[in-house]
Amino acid sequence: MDRLSTLLSQFGVRANLFYSGKLCGVSTYEGADQRGHIHLLQAGSVTLKVPGRREMLLTRPSLIFLPRPSRHQLIASEPEGAQLLCASMVFDGGVSNPLCVSLPDLLVLPLDELPLLADTLRWLFSEAADGHCGREAVLDRLFELLIILLLRHLLDHQQLSTGMMAGLADARLARSLIQMHNQPQRPWSVAELANESNMSRAAYALHFRAVLGQTPLDYLLSWRISLAQKRLREGRPITLIADEVGYESPSALARAFRRKTGSSPRDWMKSLSDEGIFLAQDGDDLNV
User: Fold this and answer.
1) How many CA atoms does the CB half-sphere of 67 hold within 13 Å?
2) Share of the chain above pLDDT 70, in %
């Protein structure tokens, strides 16, 4: 079972290197640009400050992962400093991306506890130290690969206790989630999903809610609406979207969309346009 490929093909992540070098003093990130951050401490020590959390002094090479916009500070003593590689990242669809939503606000992991990432980390550090042409483009792609491998690590080691990623890490739930992700247009019932997980209907529903915090059909609704929002941002006609995500008509999709988001597809698109996030290309397609 491939637990990540469908997610990443629908809701990928883009990374951009913005710092490579020695940090001495304080670096502050306000979290106002709708981007997450990933910092790699290669050498030295750094203090991490995040509002509402205890300060962390990192003295081992470490990965600092903040998938959503978050105010934080990195403080390195002078003159020793700390060698850092830093990238910003944005998930397709922003902070409402279902993959992004399922991740914790902060992860701090020593690099020597991430063997799955070791080769990519060596490549990253080597590329950062050299001056080859295309260096920044290569580092951007390597950071994106690093994020995918980190997600794989979290699944393989079951390091998340709740949410979609925890469900995908759960041997009893993973298959039914993958089926929903791969076939959102199918009229799934709880009994069918339970059968995919080789569980009784009652046991499946109870376990699903305990791990993901919602019922299987509520999750399916959320997944379908996330896909619909993605396709609306891409300018696809709602008549095609409805069929792709499992609704018999645009009006049925509109009712489900309103139930989930509190607004119609047209009003939701207008709010994005007003915020400068997306400009609908075919307003007539949104008349539902």
Assistant:
1) 23
2) 95
Dihedral angle of Cα 95, 6, 108, 145, to the nearest 10 degrees:
-110
Q: Would you say 72 and 48 are in contact if contact means Cβ atoms under 8 Å apart?
A: yes
DSSP state of 196: H
Using CA atoms of 240, 241, 242, 243 in order, give the dihedral in degrees to the nearest 10. 60
Kindly state the helix (H) or strand (E) to which residue 217 belongs, with its residue range.
Answer: helix 216-233
- Can you list the domains of the chain with their CATH numbers? 5-156 (2.60.120.10), 170-286 (1.10.10.60)
CB 87 within 8 A of CB 142: no
- Judging by beta carbons within 10 Å of its beta carbon (0-12, 13-18, 19+), is residue 174 exposed, middle or buried? middle
Rg of the chain over Cα atoms, rounded to whole angstroms, equals 21
pLDDT over 90 percentage in the chain: 80
Burial 231-248 (b: 16+ CB within 10 A, else e): bbbeebebeebbeebbbe
The pLDDT tens digits for 193-214 are 999 999 999 999 999 999 999 9
Half-sphere CA count of 161, side-chain side, radius 13 A: 0
> Exposed (0-12), middle (13-18) or buried (19+): which is 217, by Cβ within 10 Å?
middle
Tell me whether the omega of the peptide bond preceding residue 79 falls within 30 degrees of 0, making it cis: yes
